[in-house]
Amino acid sequence: MNPDALRGHMDALLLSVLEAEPLHGYAIIEALQERSGGALSVPTGTVYPALRRLERTGHLASEWATVGGRKRRTYRLTESGRRQLEGERSAWRDFTTAIGSVLRPRPGDARAETGPLRS
Amino acid sequence: MNPDALRGHMDALLLSVLEAEPLHGYAIIEALQERSGGALSVPTGTVYPALRRLERTGHLASEWATVGGRKRRTYRLTESGRRQLEGERSAWRDFTTAIGSVLRPRPGDARAETGPLRS
DNA sequence: CCCGTTGTGTAGACACCCTACATGTAGGCT
DNA sequence: AGCCTACATGTAGGGTGTCTACACAACGGG
Predict the structure, then answer these.
(1) How many helices and strands in chain A, by DSSP H and E?
(2) What is the pLDDT of residue B106?
(3) Structure pTM?
(4) DSSP 3-state assignment of A60?
(5) For residue B70, is pLDDT > 70?
(6) Listed residue (A79, A62, A69) closest to A28, CA to CA
(7) Cα(B18)–Cα(B4) distance, integer angstroms
(8) What element of type H or E holds B38?
(9) A22-57 burial by CB neighbour count: b if 16+ within 10 A, else e?
(10) What three-state secondary structure class fits B108?
(11) Which residues form the Transcription regulator PadR N-terminal domain (chains A, B) (predicted)?
C-alpha cells in the first residue's frame, strides 16, 4: 500500500475502529489490519501521533489503564468524534465517486480493441 | 475536497484522462473537472509539476504545438504509461476495498439503536 | 539470559500538493 | 487605448501528514 494514499484518510480509519468500542493504540493497529484483511499495516509512528492529534482536536478522549503490568492509553470517541466520523464517511463517498468517475475506463480507450468494429 | 486526500492518486488521474487521447495541461485540468462532475479542481501548481514528473519517469511523452498563437505542450501516454495506468487502477481497487472495509459501519455501532433489541 | 510480544512514544526525513506569483497571447468591451 | 477575461505554462516556497528508525519498558517462554 502506497504510503501517500493514506494521506487524509487516517483520521477516518481511526475514528471508525473506535466507533464500536474504546481501544488502545496497539489494539487499534491490530484492528486495522484485521478489518482490512491484512492490507493495512500502519506503523506506530503514524498511529500514535494521529491519535494525539485527534485528542487535541476533541474528537477523541483517553484514559490510562494498567492491564497485566502493561500501561495502556485507551481512546474513545467523543460526541464530536462521532459527528466527525459521519463527515469522514460522507467525504469518503464523495472522494471515491470523484476519483472513480475519472479512473473508470471509457469504451474505446483500450489500446487493443476486442471487437471487430471494422467499417 | 480535502487536498491531502488527493495525495498519491494524482498520477492515476492524469494517466487516466490521457488514455483516450493526448491533451495539454490546461485541457487536462478541464477534463478532470468535467469528468468528476466539478468535484475536482486541481490547481496548475499541482498538475504541471506532476506531468513533468510522469514524463521524467517515462510514463508520458510530450510535444510542443502552436494553436491559434498559443503554445501548448501536449502529453500522451507511453506504453509504460499504459501499463502504469493498469497498475494504478488495480491499486485503486485494492485501496478502496481496504479503506472501505474499515470504514463500513458495523451492525450495532450506531449510538442510537433503531430497533428494540431488548431482552 | 535472551528474545519475541505487547505497548507507548519521539525525532527527523521525505514526498507531494497547495498557494502565490511570474509571464505571455488572444479577443471582447468600453 | 486601456482593461479584463480566458487561455496557457511554469517556478518557488510552504505546509503537513506519513514513514523510518530509534528508545524505553514489562511480561513470559525457551
Answers:
(1) 5, 3
(2) 82
(3) 0.90
(4) strand
(5) yes
(6) A62
(7) 23
(8) none
(9) bbbbeebbebbeebbeebbebeeeebeebbeebbee
(10) coil
(11) 14-86
Question: How far is Cα A85 from Cα A16, in angstroms, rounded to an integer?
Answer: 7
Query: A51-81: per-residue pLDDT in tens?
Result: 999 999 999 999 999 999 999 999 999 999 9
Residue pair A61/A76 in contact (Cβ under 8 Å)? The answer is yes
Nucleotides of D under 7 A from a protein CB: 7-13, 16-23, 26-28
Q: Is the dihedral of CA A41, A45, A48, A51 positive or negative?
A: negative
Taking the CA of residue B113 and the C1' sugar atom of nucleotide C10, their distance in angstroms comes to 41
Q: How far apart are CA B98 and CA A36, in angstroms?
A: 5
Contact A77, A18 (CB under 8 A): yes
Give residue for cell 509539476. B49
User: Is the CB of residue B14 less than 8 Å from the CB of residue A12?
Assistant: no
Distance CA A109, CA B19 (A): 6
Averaged confidence pLDDT in chain B: 92
Q: Compute the average pLDDT of residues B22-30.
A: 98
H or E element that contains B60? strand B60-67
CA A15, A18, A22, A24 torsion: positive or negative? negative
Per residue in B92-109, pLDDT (tens digit) is 999 999 999 999 988 776
- Chain A residue nearest residue B16, CA to CA: A103
Residue of B nearest to A20 (CA): B109
